[in-house]
């Protein structure tokens, strides 16, 4: 799924959770963790790409995308970095280890980090084998599920519509809870 949608879904779920329980989850931190896996994997290559476009080292027409067989000079190295970072940030195993370490250090659970878990769970069915399939069990296994392409027009329409409907539902619940005796 696209990075922005990950953040919105994580934030919406945190906000929904906050309408159900007294303990509050920080919506903004949950949204941050919802986009964290993609930021971790793609910030370095995108920064490299933008700098090289600005400096004139490559032209926009020269870059056809990461799935292309013809990448500008230096892009292969950048996308190999992205692939390695993607494995780290999109693995349930790595998430579990990091979550456990953070919980042990803080001596309490950090529910906002579940935005990261949600990101991985959403990516599993919404990435194809052709474009960054989710390495669910990396480094134990290299198996990857080939799902649907999140960039399909019909999927984007359903995704955006579902986010809007869920937001309206949450606002309705918040208003009803506020007006309750």
Give the structure's gist in a few sentences:
This protein has 181 residues and is an all-alpha fold.
Q: Structural class of the helix and strand makeup? A: mainly alpha
What's the number of helices? 6
Question: What spatial form do the alpha-carbon principal axes imply?
Answer: globular
- Cα distance, first to last residue? 40 Å
Q: How many strand elements?
A: 0
The mean pLDDT is: 90
Tell me what portion of residues adopts beta-strand conformation: under 5%
The major beta sheet can be summarized as: none
Poorly predicted residue ranges: none
Helix content: 55-70%
Report Rg: 19 Å
H-E string: HHHHHH
How would you portray this structure in words?
The model has no long low-confidence stretch (mean pLDDT 90). The protein is an all-alpha fold and 181 residues long. It has 6 helices and no strands. Helix content is 62%, strand content 0%. The longest helix is centred in the N-terminal third of the chain and has 28 residues.
Summary keywords:
181 residues; mainly alpha; 6 helices
